[in-house]
Amino acid sequence: GNTSEDHLSILQNFPTKRAAAYMRVSNPVNSSKLSLVEKGICEDIDCKSEELVIRKQGVYLIYCHLNFHFPNCSNSPTDLKIELLVNDKVDRQTLFTWCASETCQEKTFKTLLQLHLAYLNVKDRVSVTLNHPKFLNEISLPNDNVLGVLRYSDEM
């Protein structure tokens, strides 16, 4: 089945501390932050156009699952950087270098998952940026590009 829909079903029945968000993301419109698409769940968190705003302080699991599509083989490596931001400051980042192999097909796909456990306060804003949003695969697997947060505990 669809991985995104499977995760959504699990999260809807997950015993969270009454705060969770699971939103599909797409290419940014006017900034480097990925846009949130109104699909998924948003419970006790404000889901804005580019960020999730925390309503209850606590320890949160923040995760981002993104699919990339490289339409052409390239002789030079491409560095993909995913940044999880809290209040517009980098809280966690992942760097992946994609290199075309000698057996490179015309198209190549790559999936990256980023997990982060962080203490968040009321009104903290969570968002994600990409240095090359043009490689985000919004055609083949648009529903599997997600940003989510789960409130794990009240205290650190």
Low-confidence stretches: none
Proper CATH architecture: Sandwich
DSSP summary: helix tally:
1
SSE class: mainly beta
Mean pLDDT: 81
Rg over CA atoms: 16 Å
Number of strands: 10
Could you say what the CATH topology is called? Answer: Jelly Rolls
* CATH class category label: Mainly Beta
Described by strand count, sense and barrel closure, the largest sheet is: 5 strands, antiparallel
Count of spatially separate domains: 1
Spatial ordering of strands, largest sheet: 2-1-10-5-8
What would you call the shape? elongated
The termini sit apart by 36 Å
Provide the succession of SSEs.
HEEEEEEEEEE
Helix content: under 10%
Family: Belongs to the tumor necrosis factor family.
Organism: Himantopus himantopus
Domain THD: 47-151
Pfam families: TNF (PF00229)
Report on the structure:
With 156 residues, the protein is mainly beta. It has a single domain, classed as Jelly Rolls (Sandwich). It contains one helix and ten strands. It has one helix spanning 3-12, and strands at residues 20-26, 35-43, 45-47, 52-54, 58-70, 78-86, 89-98, 108-120, 125-130, 146-153. The strands form two sheets. The protein has a five-stranded antiparallel β-sheet with strand order 2-1-10-5-8, with helices on one face. The chain has a five-stranded antiparallel β-sheet with strand order 3-4-9-6-7, with no helix packed on it. The termini are far apart. The relative contact order is 0.31. The model has no long low-confidence stretch (mean pLDDT 81). GO terms for molecular function: tumor necrosis factor receptor binding. Belongs to the tumor necrosis factor family. One of its GO terms (cellular component) is membrane. Residues 47-151 form the THD domain. This is TNFL8 factor.
